[in-house]
Amino acid sequence: MADLLCLPSDGRETWGLVVNEALACGLPVIVSDACGCTPDLVSPDNGWSIPCDDRDALKRTLADAFERRAEWPAMGRAGRRKVAGHTFEALAQGVEEALRSISSDDSSTNS
Questions:
Q1: Is the dihedral of CA 33, 37, 40, 44 positive or negative?
Q2: Roughly how many angstroms between the first and final C-alpha of the chain, as a whole number?
Q3: Spatial CA neighbour of 9 closest among 86, 24, 26, 42
Q4: Which residue blocks in the chain are alpha helix, DSSP H?
Q5: Are β-strands 47-50 and 5-7 bridged in parallel, bridged antiparallel, or unpaired?
Q6: What is the torsional sign of CA 15, 18, 21, 26?
Q7: pTM over 0.85
Q8: Is the bond leading into 39 cis (omega within 30 degrees of zero)?
Q9: For residues 107 and 89, what is the distance between their CA atoms, to the nearest angstrom?
Q10: Tens digits of per-residue pLDDT, 59-77?
């Protein structure tokens, strides 16, 4: 139901989960640098990041995005690739690795 996601959040946004969802759906995104997901998820190949609370930057970026709308399908594919590895399996592996790391750190300090 959308062609692009725009999330100009302020600093109270800890992580824009909707950005993950938009990228998974193949949408380019415009986010503020305070929404918690740049540069992890948003980069020039799949969207735009703007300074928080900069309305002029938002206007310019919206205009730029509209002018580049022919690139949106490629940007959507790039975003989809970026989040493809964000799975429950990858999350579980990350938790296991972190726990192993903690466990090995504890064993070296107790020896």
A1: negative
A2: 59
A3: 42
A4: 17-24, 55-67, 72-83, 88-110
A5: unpaired
A6: negative
A7: no
A8: yes
A9: 27
A10: 999 999 999 999 999 999 9
